[in-house]
Fold this sequence. Notes:
Strand order of the largest sheet: 1-2-3
Oligomer: single chain
Largest sheet: 3 strands, antiparallel
Low-confidence stretches: none
Helix content: 10-25%
Shape: elongated
Radius of gyration: 13 Å
Number of helices: 1
Mean pLDDT: 94
Strand content: 5-15%
Amino acid sequence: xxxxxxxxxxxxxxxxxxxxxxxxxxxxxxxxxxxxxxxxxxxxxxxxxxxxxxxxxxxxxxxxxxxxxxxxxxxxxxxxxxxxxxxxxxxxxxxxxxxxxx
Length: 102
């Protein structure tokens, strides 16, 4: 279990890079409704999409086999990408700690 949080952090950093490429091509970040899936499959309203920006849809699952959470606009930045950790609840410590792009 102790390697899951660092794995989540690395994946979130990968999402940030992919989101930046999406933003350059499309001129905006994916909407909350489009979510991170827009990095794998082109949304209908994304003219300029030049993906996929992630190779595998299963990368959208956190190390605890739940979808990563995504907010656009974000509360802590332009977009928020995060997981609630092993306990799937806000807060926590160690493996239960939230991991995000903040």
